[in-house]
């Protein structure tokens, strides 16, 4: 499997001829420095963890341009359908769907999910993390935006992820110390990739504190260059 980070929490997974985007926040993302056309080329599925604009991002436009199926919670998905989304795979927390060659499970995240329309808040379902499993590939857990919570231990026991994308930016998600605590306390990962940092000035700008907090632990910390695929 190859994993490409596009800044903030946007990722692309490539495996066995399949290309999947997670939280494709490109337009308006100060950390997005990649070629958008290359980032979406061949994408068949888009996974969205929750309804905030820095995660929904370019989902609608990408779905129109590529014909990709969008997988997210029911409430957010139906809101996207009302805006023109044609291919929607509805889910909710705890559910698993087979997308042909891989499965997606939505799991709990401690955060919020919504948008503001005409000055009024709009509820867009529960925030989630996503677990992606494909035969012969390491199980991937994108935590979405979340705080640490003890049921991460259940996620680890049920799904045994080997690669995790972990938010570390603080203020809206875990900071470096709590993210490192979560990884060390609950998971037996081969590698962890920090995210949700280095985009907006209000959150942490580098992964340095997280890397330092993980020093000496068996889990490999990957801090990828934006737009450059890494093999896991």
UniProtKB/TrEMBL annotation:
Domain of life: Bacteria
Pfam families the record matches: Lactamase_B_2 (PF12706)
SMART domains in the record: Lactamase_B
Keywords tagged on the record: Hydrolase
Keyword Lyase: no
SUPFAM superfamilies assigned: Metallo-hydrolase/oxidoreductase (SSF56281)
GO MF, one example: hydrolase activity
Domain called Metallo-beta-lactamase: residue spans: 7-196
InterPro entries associated with the record: Metallo-B-lactamas, RibonucZ/Hydroxyglut_hydro, UPF0173, UPF0173_UPF0282_UlaG_hydrolase
Family to which this protein belongs: Belongs to the UPF0173 family.
Protein name: UPF0173 metal-dependent hydrolase GJ689_17245
Protein species of origin: Rhodoplanes serenus
């Amino acid at each position: 499997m190859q994993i490409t980070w596009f800044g903030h929490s946007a990722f692309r997974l490539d495996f066995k001829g399949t290309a999947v985007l997670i939280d494709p926040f490109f337009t308006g993302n100060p950390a997005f420095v990649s070629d958008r056309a290359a980032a979406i080329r061949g994408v068949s599925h888009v996974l969205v963890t929750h309804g905030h604009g820095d995660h929904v991002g370019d989902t609608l436009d990408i779905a129109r341009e590529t014909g990709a199926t969008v997988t997210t919670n029911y409430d957010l998905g139906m809101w996207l359908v009302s805006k023109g989304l044609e291919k929607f795979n509805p889910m909710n927390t705890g559910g698993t769907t087979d997308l042909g060659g891989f499965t997606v499970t939505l799991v709990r995240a401690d955060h919020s999910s919504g948008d503001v329309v005409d000055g009024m808040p709009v509820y867009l379902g529960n925030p989630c993390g996503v677990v992606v499993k494909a035969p012969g590939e390491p199980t991937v857990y994108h935590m979405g935006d979340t705080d640490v919570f003890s049921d991460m231990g259940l996620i680890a026991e049920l799904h045994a992820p080997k690669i995790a994308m972990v938010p570390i930016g603080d203020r809206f998600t875990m900071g470096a110390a709590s993210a490192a605590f979560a990884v060390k306390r609950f998971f037996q990962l081969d590698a962890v990739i920090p995210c949700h940092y280095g985009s907006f000035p209000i959150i942490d700008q580098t992964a340095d504190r997280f890397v330092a907090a993980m020093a000496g632990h068996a889990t490999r910390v990957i801090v990828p260059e934006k737009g450059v695929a890494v093999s896991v």
